[in-house]
Design a protein that fits this description.
Elements (H helix, E strand, L loop, with lengths): L1 H48 L19 E3 L9 H6 L11 E13 L5 E16 L1 H4 L10 E2 L2 E19 L2 E16 L4 H7 L8 E4 L5 E3 L39
Parallel strand pairs: 1-6
Antiparallel strand pairs: 2-3, 3-5, 4-5, 5-6, 7-8
Length: 257
């Protein structure tokens, strides 16, 4: 009788330990997944700040992956691997140009099935460069009053938000769906309130970057119109919770559009 009781107790204890081990292993895997996703986003930003965008392309999901998309402005959405990665191809590294985008305040949720993850970030940064005075005549509001090395100077504060979905492929996390919400920007000499009042239309343009000699380079035509528009800061509007931080979820099919 005693042996039976001891055996039963031992079996129950082994079962409990197995459950505890499984739960601990799952928790460790999800914590590791979250760290890998955060590292992936950080790596993206370091490469982008150094004008190494060609090296960002392998951070995206593989060519042919269904559901890939990217939206940077209100001008449209890119929905093919080729059009999404075109954003990172051929970007120049002009002399005197500086980009320093720093991301913070991540909210990252890994799906219960471990196949996808969702994250949001805030970004505060600076952007600056030199432009040929002739080119600068087309965008007078964005430049500083003085010239440097015979060029017009644009030096901006910029604030954005990111909402990104990630997909695990071949055991590695990759960027799957990317959304940038530019919130506000302002030249160094001007505050973001007055600049935001006159700059609302710029958020609907498809400007990609300022390239060699400060010339604007525009995005190629988008594949689809936007599903919803970004609402940047304006002194005449109320701020919205956009994007909404992700909540815990079991699988992407539970929450996908």
């Amino acid at each position: 009788m005693t042996d039976t009781v001891d055996t039963t107790s031992l079996e129950a204890e082994v079962a409990r330990l197995r459950e505890e081990l499984a739960a601990t292993t799952l928790l460790a895997r999800r914590a590791a997944d979250r760290g890998e996703v955060e590292n992936l986003m950080g790596r993206y930003m370091f490469l982008h700040n150094a004008f190494q965008d060609e090296r960002i392309i392998p951070l995206w999901v593989k060519e042919g992956t269904p559901g890939i998309r990217a939206q940077y402005t209100n001008a449209g959405v890119y929905t093919t691997w080729e059009s999404v990665t075109r954003y990172h191809r051929g970007r120049p590294s002009p002399v005197g140009k500086l980009i320093l985008h720093t991301t913070t305040t991540p909210v990252i949720e890994v799906a219960g099935d471990g196949e996808t993850a969702r994250g949001v970030w805030l970004m505060a940064g600076t952007e600056s460069g030199l432009t040929d005075p002739k080119v600068a005549e087309e965008f007078p509001d964005m430049y500083s009053p003085k010239e440097v090395l015979g060029k017009k100077v644009w030096a901006h504060w910029v604030w954005c938000k990111y909402a990104i979905d990630f997909l695990k492929q071949d055991g590695e996390w990759r960027i799957w769906r990317f959304r940038c919400y530019e919130l506000a920007r302002a030249p160094f000499e001007e505050n973001w309130v007055s600049f935001g009042e006159k700059n609302q239309g710029a958020f609907d343009l498809d400007l990609m970057y300022f390239g060699d000699d400060g010339k604007p380079v525009f995005m190629p035509p988008a594949d689809e119109p936007v599903r919803d528009t970004n609402h940047p800061y304006s002194p005449a509007t109320v701020q919205q919770l956009q994007p909404v931080p992700p909540e815990p979820y079991a699988t992407i099919t539970d929450i996908d559009e």
